[in-house]
Design brief:
By secondary structure, the protein is mainly beta. Helices cover about 5% and strands about 40% of the residues. The strands form 3 sheets. Strands 4, 7, 8, 11, 12 and 13 form a 6-stranded antiparallel beta sheet that branches. A 4-stranded antiparallel beta sheet has the order 3-9-5-6, with no helix packed on it. The protein is globular, with a radius of gyration of 17 Å.
Length: about 190
C-alpha cells in the first residue's frame, strides 16, 4: 500500500453493483478503496520502469463506496506526469467506472496524481489499478500457432498484473484480460 494512503472498506454484495462497466471487477475488490492519508493532499500513484522505453497500459477502476450526504461531494482531476488527463471526475455510487489508456505509455517514471477539486469536500479515491507491460519478443519462443494466444501478434505480449492497491495479485484470469485487450478505447490518451 502507498506510503500515505488510508484504506476504505464497505460491505457490498456482488449483486449491488451496476453491471454497465465492460470490465466488471469483483465486488470484493470494488468494495475497497484507498484515499490520501491527508484529505487535502493528492493521491499519488507512481512507478519506475526498468527502461525508459518500457510501455504500459493502465486501467483504473473507481466506485463510490460511501453514501454521500447532500452536503458532501467527491470530485477530482486526474493528471499523468503533470498533464491533466481527466478533469472533474466523480465516482458513481455502486457503479464501476473504468478509466484507461487506449495506447501504450512510457517513461522512466510514470506518475498519476488524483487531485481534489475546489468544489470537493472529500478526497479522491481509487479501488483498483491494472498495469499491463508490453514485452516485445524479437524471436518468438514458440511456434506462431501454439497456445491459446495464437490470434495475438506473436511478437507482442503483455505481462498482466492486477493490483487492488492493498494487495498485489498476479492475474490468472486470462478470459477477462482478453476482454480488456479487445475493448475499444475511451480516454486517457
Amino acid at each position: 500500500m502507498g506510503e500515505n494512503w488510508k484504506q476504505l472498506n464497505a460491505s457490498i454484495p456482488d449483486d449491488s453493483f451496476n453491471k454497465s462497466d465492460l470490465y466488471q471487477p469483483g465486488s470484493i475488490i470494488m468494495s475497497t478503496a484507498v484515499a490520501s492519508g491527508d484529505d487535502s493532499t493528492p493521491l499519488l500513484i507512481s512507478w519506475y520502469s526498468e527502461h525508459e522505453t518500457d510501455q504500459f497500459y493502465v486501467y483504473m477502476h473507481f466506485t463510490e463506496i460511501q453514501v454521500l450526504p447532500t452536503n458532501q461531494t467527491r470530485q477530482f482531476n486526474i493528471t499523468r506526469n503533470g498533464e491533466l488527463r481527466v478533469p472533474n471526475f466523480s465516482p458513481r455510487y455502486l457503479a464501476v467506472d473504468t478509466l484507461y489508456t487506449s495506447s501504450a505509455i512510457s517513461g522512466k517514471q510514470i506518475k498519476y496524481s488524483l487531485e481534489r477539486t475546489e468544489n470537493s469536500t472529500l478526497p479522491p479515491i481509487v479501488s483498483a489499478i491494472e498495469l499491463y507491460r508490453v514485452i516485445d519478443l524479437q524471436k518468438p519462443q514458440t511456434f506462431q500457432g501454439d497456445g491459446i494466444f495464437h490470434f495475438l501478434n506473436p511478437f507482442t505480449w503483455l505481462t498482466l498484473f492486477y493490483m487492488n492497491l492493498t494487495t498485489f495479485y498476479p492475474s490468472f484470469c486470462i478470459e477477462n484480460k482478453l476482454k480488456l485487450l479487445q475493448a475499444s478505447s475511451q480516454f486517457m490518451e
